[in-house]
Each structure stands twice: as C-alpha cells, then as structure tokens.
Amino acid sequence: MADIDALKAEVRKLNAKAVQAKMDLHDLSEELPTHWERIPEVARLAHEAHEALMAARGKLAAAQAAG
C-alpha cells in the first residue's frame, strides 16, 4: 500500500509539473511572434513533462491492478 501511496504522490507532482508546462506552452503561443525562438525549448519541456506523467500513471495503474 505504501508503494501505491508513493506512486499517487509522484503522479500528483508530475501532474502539477505537466499542467505548468502546458500553461507555459499556451502562454508562449499567445505571445507569438514574440519569443518565437523559444518554441522548441518550451515544447520539449512540455513533451517531457507529459511523457513522465503518462509513465507514472501507467505504473500506478499496474500497481493498483496487482494489489
């Protein structure tokens, strides 16, 4: 059960990070064409944040199914 609680906490942390990355990408899009050169960096960070979140959600789902 402690493992599941730790995974839930990790998912919450990664979800907050992914939401912030999404908002950063959204804010950048509203500023265009200003700061256009930041598109690859901000998009990469958003992609990495959501990739980590999806992986953690998968681990959590597997742990809940197993236990």
From TrEMBL:
<dbReference type="Pfam" id="PF05082">
    <property type="entry name" value="Rop-like"/>
</dbReference>
<protein>
    <recommendedName>
        <fullName>Rop-like</fullName>
    </recommendedName>
</protein>
<dbReference type="InterPro" id="IPR029012">
    <property type="entry name" value="Helix_hairpin_bin_sf"/>
</dbReference>
<feature type="coiled-coil region">
    <location>
        <begin position="4"/>
        <end position="31"/>
    </location>
</feature>
<dbReference type="InterPro" id="IPR007774">
    <property type="entry name" value="Put_N_fixation"/>
</dbReference>
<keyword id="KW-0535">Nitrogen fixation</keyword>
<comment type="similarity">
    <text>Belongs to the UPF0437 family.</text>
</comment>
<keyword id="KW-0175">Coiled coil</keyword>
